[in-house]
Amino acid sequence: MVALAVVAFVLIHRIGQRGGGTLMLRRRFGPEYDRAVEQSGDRRTAELKLAEIARRRDEFHIRPLEDRERADYVARWDALQTQFVDDPAEATRQADLLIADVMRSRGYPEVGFDERVELISADRPEFAGSYREAQAGASSQVNDRGTEKLRSSFVHYRDLFAWLVDDSAHAKPRRAKAQDSDRTAAMSGSDRRRA
Predict the structure, then answer these.
(1) For residue 189, how many other CB atoms are within 10 A of its CB?
(2) I need a surface site. Which of 4, 65, 113, 168 has the fewest CB within 10 A?
(3) Distance between CA 116 and CA 152 in Å, rounded?
């Protein structure tokens, strides 16, 4: 653990010497930078952690999907959207597993949820928070309120999925959270099938 802290400290020190440091980490991690500072209660500790996440992520070769892989994953996602109407809890659980499968195929390591979020935050920080929300909502009980949480989770998973399967790897989030909530609340039964 001490060695890890020393490596992260050296990395931050080198970045700082090149004119990066805080600014570079803020740019790379966006809202995740502020979240890390808030959680740790200390900017320096947060920066050490984020520098370590960046170092870990940069060790991996993340590749675009081949056309066949992409088509297979999109077909699986389409099936989950159809399944959501009859079994929202299972479809949402399967959506999380599909996200992990796509990440593995692209070259991310096979790790637990928290580490997946960290690695995503180093690539596309705008998806990290919604991925956490998706995971939290996916554990909702199936009732009227739970179904709405599951629907919201499924939409968050869908946006992350769309970025992961996008060949250019430059997809933008589709819409703001409030717009998603409004759209989801207004969906008719047939529209929900396409969630």
Answers:
(1) 7
(2) 168
(3) 20
Band (75; pLDDT cuts 50, 70, 90): very high
Task: Quick: pLDDT tens for 161-179.
Answer: 999 998 544 443 333 333 3
Closest CA to 184 of 127, 123, 133, 116: 133
As a whole number of angstroms, the distance between CA 148 and CA 47 comes to 36
User: How far, in Å, CA of 24 to CA of 178, rounded?
Assistant: 29
Helix segments in 41-143, DSSP class H: 43-58, 67-86, 88-106, 113-123, 125-138
Considering only CA atoms, give the Rg of the chain: 18
Pick from 39, 184, 44: nearest CA to 114: 39
Q: How far is CA 169 from CA 8, 76, 139, 160, 163, in A?
A: 27, 20, 29, 11, 6
The whole-model pTM stands at: 0.72
